[in-house]
Write a structure and sequence with these properties.
about 240 residues; mainly alpha; two-stranded antiparallel ribbon; about 80% helix
């Protein structure tokens, strides 16, 4: 092709057709420019296609990780509610004038073992921190990015407070509650608490600590329910964006 163009130019010059030569040269330049523009367009299209593939992959991972965190919340909320139910029953038993039967004793034992359990749910979402810090999400969908940042701020705040609650309960368990309890493993897999019921009834400190445990866990349960609502809203937005 290049040899053909050269031959045409040479013939035009040889024949003294300068005007035609200039027109031809201009046309050749236009063709080259068009070729370059087409090549750039193809390259831009290819880059955009690759970027779209990466964005879809990122959004899919984000959706899956939020879904995993939501499932974790669905499982742990009733678990924490069950611990609080045992602790509430324990307080009721401690106020009763009579001794407790074996069934109630097992509930109290379980409540004392679980007294200090309060840990924030593991966040799979943190796996995408590097991508999020690069501002990838805001370039995809500004509304989605805004909702997601609100979700992250809420999760971070509630997790930090829950950690403090958990640390306080651990100290109460060590210093107050478990000083009245003998902890032991049954068949090396299940922890039980043996206790003197009258001793527990006479300890105002233990009863106050149980009340705090119920309150701290109840607050975090409320936060987790709010977090679950926000997570479901985000999942709906992500599903919409991926369509």
């Amino acid at each position: 092709m290049i040899k053909l163009f050269r031959k045409i130019r040479k013939n035009l010059l040889a024949e003294g057709k300068k005007v035609k030569y200039l027109k031809y040269a201009l046309g050749e330049i236009v063709l080259v420019v068009i070729g370059i523009l087409i090549a750039l367009q193809i390259n831009n299209w290819n880059d955009e296609r690759k970027s779209n593939i990466e964005n879809i992959k990122f959004l899919s991972n984000l959706r899956d990780e939020i879904a995993l965190d939501t499932l974790a919340l669905v499982e742990i909320i009733p678990y924490y509610e069950g611990i609080n139910e045992d602790l509430i029953k324990t307080l009721q038993y401690l106020r009763e004038p009579t001794d407790i039967n074996q069934e109630k004793r097992e509930i109290v034992s379980r409540a004392l073992v679980n007294f200090a359990i309060l840990t924030p749910v593991f966040k799979n979402i943190e796996k995408n921190n590097s991508k999020l810090s690069e501002g990838v999400l805001i370039n995809i969908n500004n509304e989605l990015n805004s909702k997601f940042q609100q979700y992250l701020d809420y999760v971070k705040s509630s997790s930090e407070k829950a950690n403090k609650f958990g640390e306080s309960l651990q100290l109460m368990a060590i210093n107050d509650v478990h000083t009245h309890v003998d902890l032991d493993f049954v068949f090396s897999d299940r922890l039980i608490a043996d206790f003197n019921f009258e001793e527990l009834k006479n300890s105002r400190l233990v009863k106050n600590d149980i009340n705090k445990s119920i309150r701290f866990r109840g607050i975090y349960i409320k936060w987790m329910k709010e977090e679950k609502i926000k997570a479901i809203e985000l999942l709906n937005l992500l599903v919409k964006e991926l369509k």
